[in-house]
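In this notebook, the sequence line spells out the residues, with the fold written below as integer tokens. This is how one looks.
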Amino acid sequence: MTAAAPFEIGIFTFGELTRGAGGAGDPRARLEQILEWARVADQAGLDVFGVGEHHRPDFAVSSPQMVLAAVARETDRIRLTSTVTVLSSADPVRLFEEFATLDLLSGGRAELTAGRGAYVESFPLFGQDLRRYDEYFDDRLDLLLSVRAENPVTWSGTTREPLQDAGVWPRPLQEELPVWIAVGGTPESAVRAGALGLPMYLAILGAPRRFRDLAALHRDAAAAAGHAAAKLGVTSHFFAARTTQEARDAFFPHYAAYFAENMPRGGVLDRATLDTWAGPDGALFAGSPAEIVDKILWEHEMLGHTRFLAQVGLGGLSQRDTLRSIELLATEVLPEVRRAVAAG
């Protein structure tokens, strides 16, 4: 009997820029910080490193594949993923070529996470009709999977010209480039990912219990379509320190700033709310390593996921504190989670 793959833990960032926060508002400085996060994560033993795509003045990363190519040359073993690639406004053929190139540069460590994106600025930027939002994603996911599955590829759809026996090069080093689907909270998206046999990320920013049904829909759809159980990953905001008090005291002013800049409709974040969100059944991971281990295991028991990605560097946290948080995740959280999951 084949042993189950170990539980995976990693980090990711959107490269957000926080005004007046020790270099975190300068895109060049931010990118250098991100490269250091990746080096430390790789050396400390984390499994996955990701960057996400935005086309806004308050984010430093518009091309995950470019940043990940730089990371590939700075690291040795950690897997490299987009978190996410806005597939609706991308050319899937070009996207596949770029991630196949990343896979070659990294020695077979590339993954692609496709999503619609939390913002819609890429639609007018690339001359697309926002009214065709769902059509673009469905059509281009179909093309991406077709290019992955066959070469040359013959394909036709509704959002671009058809392909007839078209060769797409280079091919990745891995036998099949991993493609994940990022889901915010839509049941239809979870069902689609499962029916296609694709692994899925749940971005958990609200009460984790609300996502139990989405995880079940994903599993059931995969089983109904005759696929082996597709992987499930969870992403959450994160900061760790030696003690719970130390973590929340250090994190609160930065997270409140992040909240004010990135979620203005939510109003002002007060300390009591942060403590509630970071509590045992909240979505926020801000505490001691032991507390974070307990929450990952609680969510694993509820959702059945086998990968956890922590969003780091929020709100202009210092580079020192961010790196220390990453090290604690790797050296104290990951081993304990793996030990507990392996023991059942």
About this structure: The chain is about 45% helix and 15% strand.
